[in-house]
Amino acid sequence: MTPRSASPAAEPKAMSGHAKSSTYAGMLRNFEAAADLLELSPDLRKILSTTQNELVVHFPVRMDDGKIEVFTGYRVQHNNIRGPYKGGLRFHPQVDIDEVRSLAAWMTWKTAIADIPFGGAKGGIQMDPGKFSRGELERITRRFTFALGNTIGPEYDIPAPDVNTGPQIMAWIQDTFQQTMPPSMRQNCVGVVTGKPLEVGGSQGRDKATGLGVVHCIRMWAEDRKFPLKGATCAVQGFGNVGSWAARLLKPYGVKLVAVEDVAGALADPKGIDPDDLAAHVKKEGSIKGYPRAKAVERSAVMEAEVDVLVPAALENQITGETAPRLRCRLVAEGANGPTTFEGDRILLERGIDLLPDVLCNAGGVVVSYFEWLQNKRAESWEVEEVDAKLERKMVRAYGRVREAAAKYKTGWRTAAYIVALDALQKVYEEHGIFP
Ligand code: NAD
Predict the structure, then answer these.
(1) Residue 16 pLDDT exceeds 50
(2) What are the backbone angles phi and psi of residue 286, rounded to the nearest 5°?
(3) How many Å apart are CA 235 and CA 246, to the nearest integer?
(4) pLDDT at residue 11 in the model
């Protein structure tokens, strides 16, 4: 585990390209903007702009054909001053140390904004899970968990699902972690991961939680703007956990999904695409491809659709200096982490397009992960109504804190959200001081 310094910022490319080496540097530019307004001390800037621990593991796994493959996995722990490290695991070919560092830092800001007693971490494996059998995926996951060893733990660092990892992957991690503990300690380790299946200690409402949080934010924005959601339109990039739930939960408000994109293609229909029906198709077919009740379109038609709300819910660096001038929405509600670059942000602000930043807008997932962790600690199982109501309260308060900071510091919502996070972290450092 080695500390490192950030490289200078440059503008990364959108989905078509993979030049994303500057994602962490882009995050730091937002951090600095907020730190300047908050007049954060130079000492705290040094601490918070650097990750605490970084683990890179290379581990062998036997494939179905009997050959061995060696995989590279990561776990970056950005900060734990407010509580155990917390953050997802991603299985994707683009996963690298820069991406994981950025995602880990965003988790620190997010848990502080949501006011839950966690820090920030993130991890993943650089691979395309679509290329492996179920048996191979299980062995890769279990061997990765073994390689992580005590880097994770229910009171230390608690992973969760992210891109291409869902409840099943979490169940394999939980089981592997428990089996490698002494028998008398295994039951204390149920909460080593969140986002688990219900049967092994998962929480009601965790699957939809991130999408539901996104929808709460959009609803509060609409109330603030006196903008009627009934009859409004939305476009969604990424129709996985976050994107599909956001679209489905917007439906009862009368918001029509008119354009949608995933890794396999893009669809549009000005009359509206039923997100529940599309989700059923994805469950059966694995992607939105071949959906018979909407027209296949160019990918750019989704991001550039003339809609009220655009929900990026796939990967980083989509709304950039290049693409932001072409957006035709009123509001960007970031379901994904880091979908907008520093330059993209500047252009949105200039063009008067409102923004609900990732560290606020997609916090619903980690909030319900916190509830899951609490239930595990207490050996309880809460009703979904209780989980949903508690989530709503957390989102309302977080939204309110960011709105207040935006007004007080006369700044955009991204900077305001970072200010809320840095202010909360600063207060803990002021109380603790630095050991020794
Ligand atoms: P997921 O794997 O369930 O879904 C990802 C979606 O993005 C899929 O529909 C996939 O096809 C699509 N996608 C991938 N590559 C694409 C490409 N090149 N072009 C277009 N679409 C592409 O993942 P998820 O959990 O929904 O995560 C999506 C985003 O939300 C990520 O940025 C993640 O970090 C963030 N997020 C997730 C959670 C959570 O609880 N799962 C919480 C907070 C934030």
Answers:
(1) no
(2) 90, -15
(3) 11
(4) 53
Query: Looking at the domain that runs over 203-436, which CATH code has it been given?
Result: 3.40.50.720
> How many residues are given for the chain?
436
User: Which residues are designated catalytic?
Assistant: 122
Distance 430 CA to ligand 1 centre (A): 37
Q: Cα–Cα distance between 281 and 273 in angstroms, integer?
A: 12
The span from the first CA to the last CA of the chain, in angstroms, equals 21
- Starting at the edge strand that comes first in sequence, how are the strands of the sheet with 256-262 ordered? 295-296, 265-273, 256-262, 233-237, 309-312, 331-333, 354-356
Q: What is the dihedral of CA 132, 136, 139, 144, to 10 degrees?
A: -20
- pLDDT band of 5, cuts 50, 70, 90: very low
Is-cis flag, bond preceding 436, omega within 30? yes
The Å distance, Cα 45 to ligand 1 centre, comes to: 30
Question: What pTM did the predictor assign?
Answer: 0.95
pLDDT classification of 9: cutoffs 50, 70, 90: very low
User: Does 262 sit in the ligand 1 pocket, CB within 6 Å?
Assistant: yes
How far, in Å, CA of 294 to CA of 272, rounded?
8
Q: Is 364 in the pocket of ligand 1 (CB under 6 A)?
A: no
pLDDT at residue 8 greater than cutoff 60 = no
CATH number among 3.90.190.20, 3.40.50.10860, 3.10.20.740, 1.20.1250.20, domain 52-107+119-199: 3.40.50.10860
Name which residue sits closest to atom 42 of ligand 1, judged by CA.
Answer: 365
pLDDT per position as a tens digit, 411-420? 999 999 999 9
Q: Hey, whose CA ends up nearest to atom 37 of ligand 1?
A: 162
In ligand 1, which atom is closest to the CA atom of 15? 18
Would you say the CATH fold of 203-436 matches that of 52-107+119-199?
yes
What is the domain partition of the chain in residue ranges? 52-107+119-199, 203-436
Residue closest by Cα to atom 3 of ligand 1 = 240
The answer to whether the beta carbons of residues 101 and 121 sit under 8 Å apart is no
Residue with the two structure tokens 């109330």: 223
